[in-house]
Amino acid sequence: MLEVVTIGVYGFTADTFLDKLTGAGVGLLLDLRQRRGVRGPDYSWANSIRLQSALLTTEISYRHVKGLAPTTELRQLQYREDDRKGVGKRNRIALAPEYTERYTHEILDPFDLAALVAELPRNSVTALLCVEREAEACHRSLVAERMRIEHGLSVTGL
Fold this sequence. Notes:
- By secondary structure, this protein is α/β, with parallel strands linked by helices.
- The protein is globular.
- The chain contains 6 helices and 5 strands; from the N terminus they run E-H-E-H-E-H-H-H-E-H-E.
- The mean pLDDT is 93.
- 41% of the residues lie in helices and 15% in strands.
């Protein structure tokens, strides 16, 4: 059975992030971010070029899957809901229902997930990456759940 894990950037250092991936047997990291950067010095290691360089030292492959990234409009919708609830992106625990509905309809439904799943490594775990600490607060949880339901993949959050 193919295994998928989900992981966010927040809450990790570069070293603890890489340790978590290698400890889980990750061989491929799928970056689901639209913008592959994170603001602030604490997370500069997660900016795409630095992250890819660090992954090379662990023999974990990297792939940007921009087709599964939320649009700017969708991200803004979620930010407005966060503001309304008085929570920040770094401490969000759930996605707005409208965001979930629109992401599913506009991004996930038209995406050829079967083709992506067919390309996943059979001899290692695949990680779905975004920034949020909690998978339920991030679109990666929607992708992971679709992979579990429609393709029978084992899914775990790191």
